[in-house]
Amino acid sequence: MNKTKKKDSRRSFIKKAALGTTVLAGSPAILSSKNMQQKLLKREHQEFSRNDQIQIAVIGAGGMGVADSKTALSVPGVKMVAACDLYDGHLAAAKERWGKDLFTTRDYMEVLNRKDVDAVIIGTPDHWHKQISIDALRMGKGVYCEKPMVKDISEGHDVITAQKNSGKTFQVGSQGLSSLGNEKAKELFESGAIGQFIYAEGFWARNSPTGAWQYPVPKDASEKTVDWNRYISNTTKRDWDPLRFFRWRNYSDYGTGVSGDLFVHLFSSLHFITSSVGPNKIMATGGLRYWKDGREVPDVLLGMFDYPETKAHPAFNLSLRVNFVDGTSGTTYLRMVGSEGAMDVTWDDVYLRRNLVSDPIDPFLAEKTKNTTKIFSERKKMRPPKEAHYSAEKGYKGAHYDHFTNFFNGVRHGKPVVEDAVFGYRAAAPALLCNDSYFDNKIIHWDPVNMKLR
Ligand SMILES: NC(=O)c1ccc[n+]([C@@H]2O[C@H](COP(=O)([O-])OP(=O)(O)OC[C@H]3O[C@@H](n4cnc5c(N)ncnc54)[C@H](O)[C@@H]3O)[C@@H](O)[C@H]2O)c1
What we know:
CATH superfamily of the largest domain: Dihydrodipicolinate Reductase, domain 2
Radius of gyration: 24 Å
Number of strands: 16
Number of domains: 2
Bound molecules: nicotinamide-adenine-dinucleotide
């Protein structure tokens, strides 16, 4: 692929910068985040020639593999050439979707051996992420690997080393951190919009069988249509079990529970916004309360995390919850709380609430004022807005599109991506350690800088 010159879209930049100035006009620091401006520029499309097409393959063409592929193909200059899956129904659907000439196979090495494949999307269950990523990088492919980057805490460094040795682009698929919402939250956070950062909380609630992973099993599922032996070849040997294949999230051999599935998104966003490398203390509790269908993982999980002080942020606490039995409604949020306000962050919106006034009936303050001889000025001040709602412009293509654009800029131009193996491991680690804390009933100490258990 030819390397072409980066072309910044000045008009688009000005538009985005303007978006950031409209509401909090009373806070000049918020408007002048240089870091943020550079990041916005980095996300812009870069030029490429007609024959500079990136050819991709998907390994694991199920729900997310297909969603990833569709988004990837909506980025200009990308073509699908091959698909790998262990269920024949998904390979047949891939040919229907992307043309009868599409190369299909059950063996991912056949995809990696192809010279016409520049990059692969890995959309398999979690227990295959590490090995396929390492093999793909070794074969010189760019890799977009779904989250969590690895299934077990012991696997992260191997992927980091493989990425380093290959010099290839590796992006983990927690797409939310590429969103306009996360980008705006980062800008606000860095400009001190919520004062001193103290605490964050995240919540993921669901209340339906599908939401709780009771996926339908295809009628034709059998050992003939599914390559069961290959599926379990890197884990415990067992007899054919369609539930373990199609509802893999429920079983510890293949999935990483609610924390690996959902907490990991919240860690990725939080680490991106705060430039944090992760917590040093991890505690989890929870239980299997409702979906007693033979699953091995909890349907309610509560995690608590201590983040130590770094150059980027003060020490703070984080609490995360997943509830698959939430009778109120399904919802999700990430709230960041500081000494002067709070932000609710989603991928498309940020709600900023500021509280700059001290409470007039605060007894502690009243007592303090009583004893002072200082005379306060009576004149009132202008106050900045208490509440601001930032929302993405209509027609925004979304976090997923932005994440793939960032990935392909890496593949095409060798630019760094937002969620490389180090970032991906630091987001996956506390999620995976939640499971260890829950199952082993213990507090876990983690060194987030060196990415090692303590
Ligand atoms: N980023 C997100 O928002 C998001 C959303 C959903 C899922 N995911 C992630 O995507 C991954 C897949 O989840 P899903 O919901 O699409 O599961 P899925 O069961 O729908 O799809 C997994 C596919 O992988 C195939 N497969 C299994 N082992 C394979 C192997 N060794 N080689 C080739 N194919 C293999 C299966 O046949 C299946 O088609 C998971 O890691 C999950 O955490 C991410």
